[in-house]
Amino acid sequence: MYDLLSGLKIIEVSSFVASPTAGLYCAQLGAEVVRVDHKAGGLDYDRYMMTREGRSLSWENLNRAKKSVALDLQVPEGRELLAELVCKTGQMITNLPLNSFLSHEKLAEGRPDLVSVRIMGWHDGRQAMDFTVNAASGYPLMNGPADWDPATAPPVNQVLPAWDFITGAYCAFAMLAGLRHRDQTGEGVEMRVPLGDVAIGTMANAGAMAEMLYRGGDRERLGNAIWGSFGRDFLSRDGKRFMVAALTPKQWAALVDAFGVGEELAAIETRLGVSFAQSEHNRFVNRDELFALFQRAADRFDYAELAVRLTKAGATFERYRTMFEAANDPVLVSDNPLFGPSPANPSGFAYPATRSFANLPGHEPGDPRPAPYLGEHSEEVLAERLGLSSGAIARLIDRGIVATSDKEAR
């Protein structure tokens, strides 16, 4: 946790992944992010996986370091309180619909310099989620074994909701861009970020759209091979599977050295009349023969020995792990300064928690902060932001408009 955004206050009205991620990244860099939910919890409050005590581990991690306010958002008075909180604060991240009671146009009537970031489905207003925009992007039909029949092969979805996380990160950036614009001009700004545009735009930015249009068709499936360069999974003599990559001449030389295939490689180059040392193209188009050569070499080594050779040569590689293995790996987790000690999580389950992904040399990162209990900060925020007296807040609580911490409710 760093304090680079100290003093910045954001209201977040979110559910699921992309929108909470935007608030999370701002909070991890020091912003005071207040997530406001319906008093029974947002749509993602009970999202799988749940602990035996009834706490969502997904919600707990996506809302770490935030404050929580719980209001009855099904009645006008609760919605009015939320709208007033947004106007008093001046910044909002949300994935509520465009024409909801939190539309930028309505809120800007009371706060003309409002900066809002709104995550949408598609640009034309259609609903979407990560796995549906991924289906539209074409990527699932590029995954899978190279020998699958293109006419009958099924799509292969990615497990990680990558478009959600990319969208969340982009929205955190968009918020800061909007704030800079306001600082320079005094003007508010509404930024709409469609999840679908993030997916199709990323595909275009990666050059894949231009590639498909240029080639006049789709790219073939490559299994675990890296498109356009040399890289694939291999199997060691003792059955350990690992990934190697050689995108640069230095990485290629390191692999050749570690695998001990220099002489055999030279013979292939002579026979084909090509050089692999400086040419990604040559390595890629001749990948099948090269893969076979490197696999024969891998058959001679147990993984531990091969890892030593690869490390000594300066190669780029990594062993495949299950996610459970990764979570228990000391290099990845316990010895990694990204992770700090477990805070007092609402779930009661202690586990490593992430700090900011950015590492600032010379700056103390601080320990990770916990996620809030739903409604934990309702009274505090209403008093500080709206200036409500304790008596006024108590009456709102008695009427069910405001809910307080659900710590004892589960």
Q: Which outline best applies? A: elongated
Helices, by number, come to 17
**Secondary structure tally: strands:** 12
CATH architecture of the largest domain: 3-Layer(aba) Sandwich
Strand content: 5-15%
Question: Would you write up a description of this structure?
Answer:
Helix 1 crosses helix 6 (162-185) and helix 9 (249-259) packs antiparallel against helix 13 (303-313). Strand 4 (91-94), helix 4 and strand 5 form a beta-alpha-beta unit. The protein has helices at 18-28, 57-62, 76-89, 104-108, 130-137, 162-185, 195-205, 208-215, 249-259, 262-272, 280-285, 287-298, 303-313, 323-327, 330-334, 378-386, 390-398, and strands at 9-13, 32-38, 67-71, 91-94, 115-120, 189-194, 230-235, 241-246, 316-319, 339-340, 353-354, 402-403. The chain folds into two domains: 9-203 and 364-403, 3-Layer(aba) Sandwich (Rossmann fold), CATH 3.40.50.10540; 230-319, formyl-coa transferase, domain 3, CATH 3.30.1540. 30% of the residues are buried. Helix content is 40%, strand content 13%. By secondary structure, the chain is of the alpha/beta class. It is built from 17 helices and twelve strands. The strands form three sheets. A seven-stranded mixed sheet has the order 6-5-4-1-2-3-12, with helices on both faces.
